[in-house]
Amino acid sequence: MLLEVWKKSNALQKAFIVFALSVLFRVTFASLIGLADDEAYHWSWTKNLSLSYYDHPAMIAWLESLTTSLLGDTNWGVRLPSFLCYLATGFVLWRLASDMFGIWAANFAVFLMLWTPLWGFGGYVASPETPFMLCWVSAAYVFWQSVREDGRGWPLKRSWIYLGILMGLGLNSKFIIALLAPGFGLYLLLTPAHRKDLLKKWPWIGFAIAALLCVPIFIWNHNHDWPGFRYQFHERHTTTTFDISRWFQFLTAQILFYSPVPFVIMLYTFGYSFYKRREPRWRWLFCLTLPSILIFYFQPLWAEYKPHWSGPAFLLLATGAGALWENSPVRKKITQGTLAFLIPLNIILYLPFVYPWMPKVYRTINPNSTWQPKWDLSNEFHGWIELGDYINRRQREIHAESGRKPFIASHRYETTAQAYYGTKQRVFMLSTTKSQYTVTQSAREIEDLKGSTALFVTTDKYPTNPVDWAYFDNCKFEEFKTFRDDEVSRIFTIGICRNFQGIK
User: How far is CA 257 from CA 120, 260, 297, 340, in A?
Assistant: First the structure.
């Protein structure tokens, strides 16, 4: 029955069926799994709303503060803003691709967004990336409407006011959206019909609107001695050693994140867009993706990198890749190659969330070795609520015994955030490593904790000894395990550390 409906559907109907089924799957999946580390981290920002934050601007915290106030500190209270932004990004991307390259190109691009590891699985996580990606794709769409040459282009005033708003909102989500601006300028410079637009007032009014919307970021950084700017524009880009092996690690990550066949097609699309740059749509694609490719494909040679930094540019390249795929004489082979990788990969990726089969397979293959729960990615989404209940109980018991309430602590932002979410109370990060916690923890707060007992939380993924991070008289350790079916999923260690005397 379903197969007959599929065969009788046109391209638009097929796209709707795939999109609807994918959304249904995503709703079910996101309802059943716990929060990832970064989700808990960004949720914790909502408990101390600010104009900006150390790691990123404040958009994700502002949005989540609204939904958690309505739905509580639940999975959907945290995830709803990102989920809605993800859906909206898919819709705008489809509109953009269908407008520029046709319906099947749009179907191809949105399919990659839904099911490749980077955009597909990454799209579940409540993070700054989702509102940022919505602003990125929307700004690209508006810019295309402003420069199209078929007589249906938007007026300059309307376009640049919208672009100013979108760029400003995007900058309050993630700074990478700034890379669209040189792409806009490059396109205008390379297009005689629009070159004089740069001499008109509206692009500069748009720039002024974006700058005005960024005032909260500047105020927060000024008040905290510019930690966010130093981190984003200097500290994470200043490795001084040239390392070709790191670049090949980056390339491997790119291939896996986008999946091999689509990655090759999208990379080819970038070269093809330069070759076809005399055509407005291909010139548009080349100009808007060039800044990201130039920066993020050379970055790994000199400094540490994140594989997803090039993701926004590649999402635009996916629209052109869809056009090349549709008109390719080997279209069927490209489709088969893409599905041959993505179908088993997604089965392997999602199946551990249904049942913990990986340790059983490992023990069958390696009967003399010990399985480590941290090897299973799906375990990272479980156990923190149970741990929170345990820590809260132990805190009450120690408070009753000693007469003084112990504080909760950890040494990494991930563990601090998850312990915060699990216990629903303030957790201190006892470390000199910079994060939102260490930047905003005041010296007075740390001073007031001296003499207290700490419940210091560590995990099997990030094991450590509390005395390596702070001064205590002594620590006594308790192990707490959580289970999924008959398998251990997480192993936590809680150090009961007496007489805190300061951070090392």
Answer: 10, 8, 15, 15
